Amino acid sequence: MPLFHPDVDILRYREGDLDEEKKRSVDKHVEGCAECREYLAFVDDFQTGLQELTPEEFVGTQTCPEPELIFDYEHGKLDEKSARELRGHMLFCDTCTDELYALRRLRHPRSFTQAVIRIAKNVLRLVDISGTGEVLEMEPVAVKGTGEEDSADGVQIEDRVADPETKRSSAIRIRIDPHPEGLRARMHLQADPPQADWKVSLTPVGGEELMAVPIAERETLLESDLVPGSYIVNIRKGENSLASFALEVQAAA
Amino acid sequence: MATPLRPAPASPLAHLDDEALIRRYCAALATATTDEEAAQELWYQRHEPILLQKIKYIAAKPGDIRPDFVDFKPFVEASLGWAWQKYFGGIRKLKNPGSKPALRAWLEMVAYTSCMTETRRLIRDRGRLVPLDEVVGGDVPTEEYETEKERGPRYTPRPDLAERQPSPPVLIAGKERKFILRELLIRHAESSERARESAHFVRLRHWNGWKCPQIARHYYPDPADEAQNKADKHRVWGRLKTDHDKLRKLLKKEFNVASLRQI
Questions:
Q1: A108 CA to chain B: closest CA distance, Å?
Q2: Distance (Å, whole) CA B160 – CA B180
Q3: What is the pLDDT of residue B136?
């Protein structure tokens, strides 16, 4: 059995979406891996079970909330209890889900990510993320603290950002690492490939822009001494915003 | 040469700022009267033009909030009607009317939700069948439309169907299984915005039978290039993969069941 599980390929394998070579490799893995077989059995059972539900059984009786509630949710202003109820409702209600996405499309560029990050001494933890960005796994880095070695964990978020005019795109990665001096962080932007005619800016919510530079290098330091707060990292070309990352950095209690 | 515009007649309340006007209007409401002067100044001179501008922006692209079967102009007019209701219905609840950002945010909320309300009305009305006599004026012969009723049910149950029904214990297990599956998905969706989105992917894939590229195109706007298209699809696959893992863990945690086959 190969050392690594096939990750997303296991679902693509199940749906017949892999080329012959990859299919053979996953086949071989699944044969010898009880965990992956259990995973596939769960997906099969889950699908069969859901398909047995009639629309009445599945959707039940749903009452759509007022549009104001959806607007507040999109703005992050809804209390947790109401937000949970709305999320449960939107699982079944395509009208409300479409409204939420229409609001997002109008308010933000195509690529938009919202993330909440909690910061403790030498450790950052992603609490929530939504939008088009994805979290990337990071290798733990050993840093020197006050004479002892601590494990330092950062957060990495990646999105593929494209310019619809030129049809050029880059993988944009925001990397936040803990600062050795406690409840602070360092923020970098990595671009693959760099785009010299794009700019990145960092702005605290409700405040003045802290910096704005062209994305000419593979890695750009956005802030070396980031304190807890809410920030917007914006990628733009001229006046057009191509992507935004709304990051809330919270200090751990 | 263009004729210079004649200055508009000065409003008697033009000297008051927004906060003073709103407070004056609300003070009158508290005594069950309406301050028409303040209302006119607030709506016509100050905030209707802002709301109209915002509504036009929201309605500009069909298929977003404005449905693509409705023209721009009637949609804007109807939404402005809702905006008037929401504006005067909600102005009393406006916290901190002296803060310009708070007022701007509230007006934005009024504009967006007015368009959403109009869209809901349009979709609701579109789905409602209009009786024929409403269209042609009442003199519609009814006989030929009622013959369907007299024919009786089109499908009759097969006599052997009762024998094929599952036994009561199997039926109960099936119902319990259905309940658990639904509840599992709801609990997962409720936990965070990301989980809600992923649970919706699971629903679209398994219950609606959508393929992964269809889910990607439904959720994410048109990609600018092939790399972005690939990234969108990969994102959906990735979410489906991790969320089946999470659903498995949740099943164990909430229902103490390791496999759905145990139910």
A1: 12
A2: 31
A3: 55
**A window 48-77, beta carbon within 8 A of B:** 49-53, 57-58, 64, 66-68, 70-72
Q: What is the CB-side half-sphere exposure of residue A175 using CA atoms within 13 A?
A: 17
**Strands A219-226 and A182-192, sheet pairing:** antiparallel
| Ordered alpha helix ranges (H), A108-224 | none
Instruction: Please answer whether residues A37 and A29 qualify as being in contact, where contact means their C-beta atoms are separated by less than 8 angstroms.
Output: no
ipTM confidence score:
0.84
Nearest C-alpha neighbor of A11 from the set B196, B191, B198, B255: B198
- Residue spans of alpha helices (H) in chain A: 9-14, 20-32, 34-52, 55-59, 67-74, 80-90, 94-107
A121 interface with B at CB cutoff 8 Å? no
Output phi, psi for A245, to 5 deg. Answer: -120, 115
**DSSP string covering A59-104, please?**
H-S--PPPHHHHHHHHTT-S-HHHHHHHHHHHTT-HHHHHHHHHHH
**Segment (H or E) for A197:** strand A195-204
Q: Could you report the per-residue pLDDT of A204-244, keeping only the tens digit for each?
A: 988 899 999 999 999 999 999 999 999 999 999 998 999 99
> DSSP letter string over B109-130?
HHHHHHHHHHHHHHHHHHHSPP
pTM of the predicted structure, to 2 decimals = 0.79
Closest CA to A242 of A207, A191, A187: A191
CB-based burial of residue A75 (10 Å sphere; 0-12 exposed, 13-18 middle, 19+ buried)? middle
Classify strands A229-237 and A240-251 as parallel, antiparallel or unpaired: antiparallel
Asked if the Cβ–Cβ distance from B112 to A7 is below 8 Å, we say: no
Cβ-defined contact of A43 to B117 (cutoff 8 Å): no
Phi and psi (nearest 5°) for A178? -70, 145
The tokens describing A19, both together, are 């080329």
Nearest partner of A113 among A127, A134, A133, judged by Cα: A133
